[in-house]
Design goal:
Elements: E1 2-13, E2 16-27, E3 31-35, H1 42-50, E4 57-62, E5 65-66, E6 77-80, H2 92-102, H3 107-120, H4 136-148, E7 154-158, H5 166-183, E8 186-191, H6 194-200, E9 203-208, E10 211-216, H7 218-223, H8 228-233, E11 238-248, E12 251-256, E13 259-264, E14 276-281, E15 287-288, E16 296-306, E17 311-317, E18 320-326, E19 337-341, E20 348-350
Parallel strand pairs: 3-8, 3-9, 6-7, 7-8
Antiparallel strand pairs: 1-2, 1-4, 4-5, 9-10, 11-12, 11-14, 12-13, 14-20, 15-19, 16-17, 16-19, 17-18
């Protein structure tokens, strides 16, 4: 049974169409990430779920209950904000207990819940400190504790890690995911960070200009993007358009701007217009060419960026630019001629 159901949701701000007729079902205990660039509608969707905005059209259900006009404090959700939104004059204990006091939970039960969540998030011993005496990571944990201690039906995250440094972001996102799995709380997480979304999500909802571009688990979103937007936004991708020359089963011979290639489209949705096709592949799918390997591509390295475990290569092939990443041991440099092979099943057919 879906714990959260969004049906044909539309939200406008004056003449701006922020969310345009989107639908989504989220299962009980699922961790779903809304991912996209600024202005794509992900935060508006989250805030409409929370009740901070009411839909202009469409419906939002928590279980079987329609909550379109239910105020935020009656929805049994909890929000972790980008700014943490802690009360600076209150101690950690008082910040965490605030929601419980609003729910009129008994003092004894407050103590039990707070002690449990403080231990879970590694905050024991910090109860008497104020937010200004904590690190960014500790403040984020306090915000998490304040949210989950109320035992919400749905936990909402509005880019909660954007104020942390890169190393701490990785640490805290692992803690968030472990906490969510342990508690089994349905969670909706908003971010524009692709790595973050891939690392923590059960499913990812990729959004652009108020629309949902694709919904799927992290592997499907990365390996089998539906559109050029998804392919380009999630990680790195080479995206080209070519003319279909022939077809044998699921294998298509395509005349691309950089030469002729064969694409095995098994498991991919092939565009209805089979005259031309847009396709993509990941830089790491390009392998140093060996005799007999498929889809040989030869070009000149215009830039080689050594990154320790891999070398990031910018290559020009027949006047077209593409990207490759290789763990080749030998040193590669700009000006070198190099030949790659691309496996036939590494390509994704794109709808647009």
């Amino acid at each position: 049974m879906s714990n959260l159901r969004i049906k044909n949701l539309t939200k406008r701000f004056d003449e701006v169409l922020a969310v345009d007729n989107i639908s989504l079902d989220v299962a009980d205990g699922e961790f779903v990430t809304l991912l996209g660039p600024s202005g794509c509608g992900k935060t508006t969707t989250l805030r409409t779920i929370a009740g901070f905005y009411y839909p202009d059209e469409g419906e939002i259900y928590f279980g079987d209950k329609l909550v379109n006009n239910v105020p935020p404090n009656k929805r049994n959700t909890a929000m972790c904000f980008q700014s943490y939104a802690l009360f600076p004059h209150m101690t950690v204990w008082d910040n965490v207990s605030f929601g419980l006091k609003m729910q009129k939970i008994s003092h004894q039960q407050q103590t039990v819940r707070i002690e449990r969540v403080m231990e879970m998030l590694g905050l024991t011993g910090l109860e008497k400190r104020k937010p200004g005496q904590l690190s960014g990571g500790q403040q984020q944990r306090v915000a998490l504790a304040r949210a989950i201690v109320t035992e919400p039906k749905i936990l909402l995250f509005d880019e909660p890690l954007s104020n942390l440094d890169a190393k701490l972001r990785v640490q805290v996102r692992v803690e968030i995911r472990e906490m969510q799995k342990r508690l089994g709380i349905t969670s909706i997480y908003v971010t524009h960070d692709q790595d973050e979304a891939l690392a923590i999500s059960d499913r990812i909802v990729v959004m652009d200009q108020g629309h949902i571009e694709q919904v799927g688990d992290p592997y499907a979103i990365y390996r089998n993007p539906d559109t050029s937007f998804v392919a380009g936004f999630i990680g790195l991708a080479n995206i080209f358009e070519g003319k279909i020359v022939s077809k044998h089963g699921s294998r298509y011979t395509v005349e691309a701007p950089f030469g002729s290639i064969v694409i095995d489209a098994a498991g991919h949705a092939v565009p209805e217009d089979e005259g031309t096709v847009k396709f993509s592949w990941r830089p790491e799918d390009m392998k140093i060419y060996t005799e007999g390997a498929p889809n040989r591509v030869s070009g000149i390295i215009t830039q080689a960026v050594f990154m320790g475990n891999i070398t990031d290569l910018f290559i020009e092939v027949n006047g077209k630019k593409m990207r490759a990443q290789t763990d080749e041991i030998r040193k590669l440099a700009a000006g070198d001629t190099i030949a790659f092979s691309i496996p036939e099943d590494a390509f994704s057919m794109l709808r647009r």
